[in-house]
Amino acid sequence: MSWKAGLSRNLPVIRFFACPTSPSSNGVLSWYKNNYQVLKAMNPKLPMLLRTAENAMPAVTTELDFTMDDLLKYMLQTNKFQNEDGSTALDRVEAAKAYLETDWVALRRERWAHAGFDPEHPLIGEEDPDWKFDPKKSQDLATYIELKESMDEQLSTLKGGQENEFTRAENSLLMCQRVDLWCAGEKEVEQAVKHLNMLGKRFNQVERQSPREYIEDFYPGASDF
């Protein structure tokens, strides 16, 4: 099966940008025109959007579901944790490595160690703000509290870099969702779409391969945001 038939399984959307009058965008415009009908027939529910504007940089973009783990691995691999003098910030490096080793299975299990009580209830701050001072709850949830506080401390440390280090790394990683195509031909445009498709296969879960997870707890009055 052609890789084009699998686009909708890996990508939620594909956006093309081009200038309608500039020769530098001819490759993007031609590829879109020549492939749209075939791609849409193979992927009827996949939005394939063309946005044109004067002097627009020709490009193709999508949306990738990067996780915190993906971001931290990227920051470690590219040495983004740095002090003002350019040296490696060992405290933030160690915090990132420790976060990557978080036992999420244990954290989810220990969250429910006290029957009928959820320490992550969205309204816990209003309904039971002093729950940690309850002897029974604090005893049952001791492991959860330890894991959660350790994780929160790690996040606080690794986000404490100079000059918005963490935010800049987030933005840098998000640029992987875009391929600029200045003066590119149709072959280059197709390779760019194929590249984004491979990234989507790696990072996205547009179609789940495992059984779906359903909401088990609903809290009336909780915000959706």
UniProtKB/TrEMBL annotation:
SUPFAM superfamilies: Thioredoxin-like
Protein name in the entry: Ribosomal protein/NADH dehydrogenase domain-containing protein
Organism of origin: Chaetoceros debilis
